[in-house]
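A protein record pairs a chain with a discrete description of its three-dimensional fold. The following entry can be read in just this way:
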Amino acid sequence: MHAPPIHASSKDVFDVEPHHALRCLACGYPLQPGGKLRCSECGKQFTMPTLARWFDGDGEAHLKVINTLVLIVLTLKLWVLVPNLAVLARLGDAAMAAWACAMSRQNKEGSLGAIFGMAGAIAAGAGVLFAFGSTLEFYTLNLVAAPLLVCAVLHDPEIGDVLGRSATRTVGVAIVIVAPLLAAALYFLERVAPANAGPPGASFVLKTLIPHLLATAGWAWAWWSLRHVRRTLYAPLEESE
């Protein structure tokens, strides 16, 4: 049986799943329906429309779809190891990453979250231009898209940072800044390294292998971060205590 609807106004009515609870979007602590909707743990105040955006049933489903797309991105990175499928896998990787970033913009129009999501979609989508050979550029753009996706998800148009106590967003911004610097360093090393520094060759290691591993690590971090958000906000109380 569902819990009774929580009324904020005639327009803001939604049902909470019986095994879920309204939670503080700043720290994840359970909130009591009704009242002032203030977190007793961190003191953060919320409005019902804000909570409805996350807990009306669509919020968890939307986040689950995004996380599934991230898993597909990670799977496609394994397909790159098959020589005949490398280009196709990179094209699929770029498409799925761009799709996930575009989906992260839902209900965030006109906010910083929408900008993060759009930037991630552009970065991932631009990878298509480099999927056929310029692997350093492809994986650099791909790596940048992962933290932009997470930053978009962890933004609410009204309260700003979601689960702001964690360092997730800080790590994400750091990755966005550091990724191009790493790419420039790898490009420089590739230019000064001998053309054939033993198998598999310095060029392959610096322009393909290392960027691929870094991008894979970035998207694995994105998957873990989104999984953490789902568990913090939507896990049944008995699992999160």
